[in-house]
Specification:
mainly beta, about 180 residues, globular, three-stranded mixed beta sheet, Immunoglobulin-like, eleven-stranded mixed beta sheet, disordered N terminus
C-alpha cells in the first residue's frame, strides 16, 4: 500500500471506507484541529458533497427588519455546485447578497447564485457575501437558532442551523455534522 497525503476532511468523505494504514492525513482548513492524523481505518458517511459550518446571525437591535447570516460552505465533491436559493421559515424572505465599497459607499448587490468550486470553500462573512434575512417573524435573541435551507443547482437542499450571537463571539465547536444535514429532491 502506498502512502498518500490527502488534503480533505475525514468527517466529510463521501461514504467510502478508506484504509489509511500508516498514511498521513492533512485536514482541510475547516478542520484545522486535525492537523495530521495516522489511522488504521476510517469510515465516513456523508450524504452530499456540500456542507455548511460556522453558521451564525448577529444579534440585531430591536425593531431592525433586516438581518444577515454568515457561514462557510465547503464543496468536497468533484463537481462545481452552486447555491441558487435560500429560505428561512423565521423570515418573510431571504436572498444571497454581496457587499462591496464603490466610490466610498457600501453597496449591496443581489446575487442569483453563488458558485461553489469543487474541492473549495466559500466564506459568507461581514462586508462580503452574506444571506440577507428580511422581515423577521419574531424577535431573535442571543442563543436562538435560525433555520436556513440552501437550494443547490442539482435540486438538493442543505439544511443549516445558524446560531444568533453577538459579533465577535467565538463559535461553539460542533464536530458532528457541523450543524447541517442534506435532503435530496
Amino acid at each position: 500500500m502506498t502512502s498518500n497525503l490527502y488534503k480533505t476532511c475525514l468527517g466529510c468523505l463521501t461514504g467510502t471506507a478508506m484504509i489509511l494504514s500508516a498514511q498521513t492525513v492533512q485536514a482541510c482548513e475547516a478542520h484545522a484541529f486535525l492537523t495530521t492524523q495516522t489511522a488504521e481505518a476510517k469510515t465516513a458517511s456523508h450524504q452530499g458533497p456540500v456542507m455548511a459550518m460556522d453558521a451564525w446571525v448577529p444579534v440585531a437591535p430591536p425593531g431592525v427588519k433586516a438581518h444577515a447570516a454568515y457561514l462557510v460552505l465547503m464543496n468536497h465533491g468533484a463537481d462545481l455546485r452552486a447555491v441558487t436559493a435560500v429560505h428561512s421559515p423565521q423570515y418573510a424572505s431571504a436572498a444571497i447578497h454581496a457587499s462591496q465599497v464603490k466610490d466610498g459607499v457600501n453597496v449591496m448587490q443581489h446575487l442569483a447564485q453563488v458558485d461553489l468550486p469543487a474541492g473549495s470553500s466559500v466564506a459568507f462573512k461581514p462586508h462580503g457575501l452574506h444571506i440577507m434575512l428580511m422581515g423577521p417573524k419574531k424577535p431573535m435573541a442571543q442563543g436562538d437558532t435560525v433555520d436556513l435551507a440552501l437550494t443547490l443547482d442539482d435540486g438538493t437542499t442543505v439544511a443549516v442551523k445558524a446560531e444568533v450571537r453577538k459579533r465577535g463571539a467565538a463559535a461553539p465547536m460542533n464536530h458532528g455534522h457541523m450543524g447541517h444535514d442534506h435532503k435530496g429532491s
